[in-house]
Amino acid sequence: QVQLVESGGGLVQPGGSLRLLCAAASGTKFSIYTMGWYRQAPGKQRELVAAITSGGDTNYADSVKGRFTISRDNAKNTVYLQMNNLKPEDTAVYYCNRNALVYFDWGQGTQVTVSS
After folding, report:
1. Cα 5 from Cα 19, distance rounded (Å)
2. Which secondary-structure segment (H or E) carries 116?
3. Closest CA to 48 of 4, 17, 92, 12
4. Chain centroid to CA 116: how far?
5. For residues 29-57, average pLDDT
6. Whose CA is closest to 112, among 4, 2, 25, 21?
7. How far is CA 39 from the centre of its chain?
């Protein structure tokens, strides 16, 4: 029903930066919802790394505090994740989704690989 599209991932060296983007290809607005960025590495549980309310309040997993910044542009119906000082343990597929009692359908995610 809601098609989420993540982009901006890639291969980066430790200490590098990436900026991820989440958009709704379906045309459905999600600017009124709390949104989150999640990540999942092979064989591991998907985890929430950052969330942002419709009003801009944010929360972060301890593992990314001080390095990642979640933001949104409600006019563009877009959510961002600025990732700085990337570490190998950040390697995962990153997804965006609603952070609530129910989820939108999961998108394809975008691969982030941190390696020298």
Report:
1. 14
2. none
3. 92
4. 23
5. 94
6. 21
7. 7
Written as one letter, the residue type at 48 is L
> Reduced to 3 states, what is the DSSP secondary structure of residue 101?
coil
Task: Assign 52 to helix, strand or coil.
Answer: strand
Reduced to 3 DSSP states, what percent helix, strand and coil does the chain have, rounded to the nearest 5? 5, 45, 50
Task: Say how far apart CA 66 and CA 63 lie, in whole Å.
Answer: 9
Average pLDDT over residues 73-88: 95
Tokens of 77: 């119906």
Structure tokens at 56: 């801009």
pLDDT at 45: 96
Greatest CA separation for the chain: 39
